[in-house]
Amino acid sequence: MPEWWHCTCKKWVARSRSHARSCSKSCLTLSQSTRVCGHTIELWVTSTRTIPTPKSIRLVGDVFSSRFCFHSLSVWRSCGVGWQALGSVYLLHRDLADVDRYDYDDRAWSPLSGAPGSAVQCNGTSPHVRKTKFVLGQFGVMRSSRKGGLRTGWRINGRPLQMVNVHLFADVSNIDAAAQTPSKDALIRRAALEFLIDGVSDPAHESDDSGGPAVEESTDGRPGKRSRKGPARAQLPEAAFFFGDFNFRLANSELAQHISSGSRGKFCRNRPDHPPTKVVYNKRGSGAPALVLEKKKFLVTDPEFYAAESLADLRQFDLEGNEFDTLLEMERRFLPSYPFVDSDGPAADSGQVYAKTRAPAWCDRVLMNPQARSLVKDDSFSYFCIGENVPMGDHKPVALALQLI
User: Fold this and answer.
1) What is the pTM of this model?
2) How far apart are CA 405 and CA 386, in angstroms?
3) What is the radius of gyration, based on Cα positions, of the chain?
4) In DSSP terms, which residues pair with 278 in a beta bridge?
């Protein structure tokens, strides 16, 4: 991580401790030619689970004021029937003059208005936003959720691209996740992400391949409708960055075998005809418990499992992101971004203790399709975790800083 990034992020998270649950899951910095303190920075984007308050917006402004003057600050909020608790904030350097936004209704580009320091705020009904909420029954998910995506189109110095804020389904049960690879929830995430990937080339994008609807709001706020004011005048940007909480998890079945040295799990049930409530994996050779799984418990008896070197070795079980030929990721060297202790107490205050609820995983990512990768200058990126020693909730924000060709 560049030293100036480290100092800035440390200052940011230190001043944001009281707003830990509103922190971003991932952020992306794009740059081309503007020099700021010896580094090229033009656009900073972050995904949020809640809409920033004026106080938190001022906080970001105070922290970055020595390096950034906002050309625009844009906030998108999902509301009404399509509520999915996603928001995106885009901060542009004042020297970045050539910026256009894509109008998904008119299929056209429009210049970003507003003087440096001004704010442009849009909600989910804006023509510059395409918001998707996965609805009940889609991908076979029969539980309500706030999962979905938030898509915006940008043209920066003549280079068109789309930004897709992603929030996918989490694992329901550790026991179910260890039953097979890929797990049922992993297959659901795959289908959901493929749906969002398909949406990059579809301005309307109202249903999945099986006909299951996804809620996308039009400019009049009515779900599932699309306002079309004329023929297509500008092609959708093919280059796309995907960022947010993908909820990618490790292959728990293989991980359990690794922890127990290949032993079979012992299933515990309240009644013979009931589903298991606990699975115990004993260490092969000793018979002592090595791993205990419950629906929301992941208990490893070896304290060395959470050592930094051991956590880095878990990458061999990080398979979900490899399922997508159309998505690429920069080299990832940081430790798992989830799940951290976020309750009160010394463990949470350190910001370094993993909760014993789920297997550690790299849930939070910044990915891109090949078209976006072709815009990135080689060896110009820094991909890292923010607030490694600061409590920021159960997820650690992840950032990717890069330079466009």
Assistant:
1) 0.81
2) 26
3) 22
4) 268
